[in-house]
Amino acid sequence: MSEQPERPRRSATATGPGRILIAVYAIFALSATARAAVQIAGKFSEAPVAYLLSGLAGVVYILATIGLAGRKPGYRRLAWAAVVFELVGVLVIGTLTVFDTGDFPDDTVWSVYGRGYGFIPLILPFVGLWWLRHTRARH
Amino acid sequence: MIGALEVVAYVAAAAVALYGVLTTVRNRPPDRTHRIAVGAFEGILLIQAVIAAVRVFGGVSLPEQSTFLIYLLVSVCVMPIGLQFATAEPTRWGGTVIAVAAIGTGVAVWRLHGLWAAGGV
């Protein structure tokens, strides 16, 4: 990738207020991954689906954090993919857990649209998509 | 956990978070005051972590001991990393990055409280 001085920082997601977003994503990456690690290591057989989902959510937050923090085009694509996946995840898991709690004996980050985390998991992907759109290069 | 120290930790978290947001509003990058405030908060967290770890390894048994120890580690790691990230790009937004780290740390302390209380100590 060659330098493009005509729009140097215009398209960077890791600058200005974007750093607040990265900080929030990093905290969710840390807490979701740590929680899933404890669940999978300690009591996996109790609720394998929920714990695997916890782990998947943790990985998605890690990828979104890396994608938003990186400055090359590949990172931006990674961020788009991770944030869209996150949005679909929180909507699908949120809806499933609202209508049928039976299949989810233990909470995940995305259960009931992230109620256990102050609904931040529901708001975060919308902010992420807005920021990715807001910072994209203009031609 | 350790009643008084925990309250001090919440007050410090709130103070650091408010000061961080304030400097964002006032369009100031993080400065020496932020470092001192984060340092003081981190000192409280370290004292709390050492006391709690000593008590856990000294015989206090908790239902979710490994989870408790992970949260204890998280509670002391977030502020230094957050401060580093906030000051790496010295703009007005650094203060809010510190605020996010302080709120996250406050939540970790709250989770520690719940895990400790579950042990009935």
Automatic annotation (TrEMBL), chain A:
Keywords: Membrane, Transmembrane, Transmembrane helix
Ranges annotated as spanning the membrane: 20-42, 48-66, 78-99, 111-132
Keyword Membrane part of the UniProt annotation: yes
Name of the protein described by the UniProt record: Membrane protein
Species of provenance: Pseudonocardia ailaonensis
Lineage: Bacteria, Bacillati, Actinomycetota, Actinomycetes, Pseudonocardiales
UniProtKB/TrEMBL annotation, chain B:
Transmembrane segments: 7-25, 37-56, 68-86, 93-112
The entry's keywords: Membrane, Transmembrane, Transmembrane helix
Domain of life: Bacteria
Name of the featured protein: Integral membrane protein
Lineage: Bacteria, Bacillati, Actinomycetota, Actinomycetes, Pseudonocardiales
